[in-house]
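Suppose a colleague, Dr. K., hands you the sequence of a protein chain of 100 amino acids and asks what its three-dimensional shape might be. Before reaching for any lab equipment, you can write down a predicted structure in token form. Begin with the sequence itself:
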Amino acid sequence: MKNLVIVEFPAKEDKFEDLKKTLKEALVDTRAFEGCISIDTYEDISTRTIYLIENWESLDNHSNYANWRAETGLADVLEPLLEEGAASLRIIRCGKKLNI
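The predicted structure, expressed as tokens, is then:
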């Protein structure tokens, strides 16, 4: 893995399936974005949270992607689906793997 990014999407109680459908559609463009190597998705049913485990060529590529998503209004689409709205979306940019 080159640069690890973890993203958490905590869904509202009645919006978990809608969130999964929305992310399935949105991730097509994410995976095609410059610098995206791979994205794996996981769910925690007990907390209604979707986790993305992303591998990027660089954290700059991910920042460019995040800026593009902000400009194209994905947060507006996610707002009614997420617990506490789009502000509850959590992005952890871990960076490069350490060999320690």
